[in-house]
Amino acid sequence: MKELGKEGERGDDDGWEVAWGSQSAGVGAGKRNATKRLSIGVFRGAQFAVKYTSRDQHSQKRAIPFCPKNVIPSLPTDKWTRENSLSLSLSLRFAKNTSMTKHAAEHGSFSAKDYQDPPPAPLIDPVELGKWSFYRALIAEFIATLLFLYITVLTVIGYKSQTDDKKPGTDACGGVGILGIAWAFGGMIFVLVYCTAGISGGHINPAVTFGLFLARKVSLVRAIMYMVAQCLGAICGVGLVKLFQKSYYEQYGGGANMLAEGYKTRVGLGAEIIGTFVLVYTVFSATDPKRSARDSHVPVLAPLPIGFAVFMVHLATIPITGTGINPARSLGAAVIYNKDKAWDDQWIFWVGPFIGAAIAAFYHQFILRAGAVKALGSFRSNP
Q1: pTM, two decimal places
Q2: For residue 270, is pLDDT > 90?
Q3: Contact assessment for residue 281 and residue 267, using Cβ atoms and an 8 Å cutoff
């Protein structure tokens, strides 16, 4: 048996490497006469995975919750100590006459219930400006917001065109209706968050970015650049709608957010605050790293509740403000439509969403995730 426990330690003959901490821990067997390669990983988020890969590319992968009572048969439970240490032992036979046993151990607190969030993002991180992944994320946010505005504003204009009683052959009860508009907004958020979550985080909304910044999930530099990319994408998306349907665009309001007649300013502002709170609160809950650690399916399903939250908020607030809850969406439509009414109410669609996002960030981070005053520093969850 060979002891593996030092970070970065590497074996010349076996080809193994160990890396613990916030990174994944891996052990790979590379014996010359071995016919298979074994990888063991302990991933951030309390997941344990075992992967067998043969040279003919046939592979099997198994991921199980990190729990002493729920381990694969190859891992003897007597090697686990729940509170103060982690000890893994695995023995596999690679060929008829070849057997390899690997043992990895790390001392420290690490159990399923005792989870601690990753370290907060730095306020200013100049290092990320030199990484391609940062600019790739900006491009993803720009394109996603462009597509979001193009599809949704086109849906709004199409609905108004189909229900215009001044046009012959139109039906006031025809078109997609408010329900269809809400589905367009919620469905596009679901699709785009799913597509971009692994690249940029799938914000597509300055209010979401602002809330995540307050929770120290993203740096100030990234937050500002995301907001710029989102606003530019929104302007370009609405610009495409006007380019393809200029006459309808001007005639039916350009999809701009405006306070509806009969509603006071405070009502519109309150609708935007509460609507954005629902959205950002859902984002925090759906992407909670502790929930991702406990339930491996959560990262895949996260776009669904986020999109559904957008759908529900639109059903409630379309009659009041046309539903902003996204400053980039409101700004893009106002810039291209460029009418006084759209600009007069524009502040509502910035102040309201940012207040709602701030409240959601505070509520989730300091009330739901914190057990006491001491948790304000570490955000450590209670059992």
Answers
A1: 0.67
A2: yes
A3: no
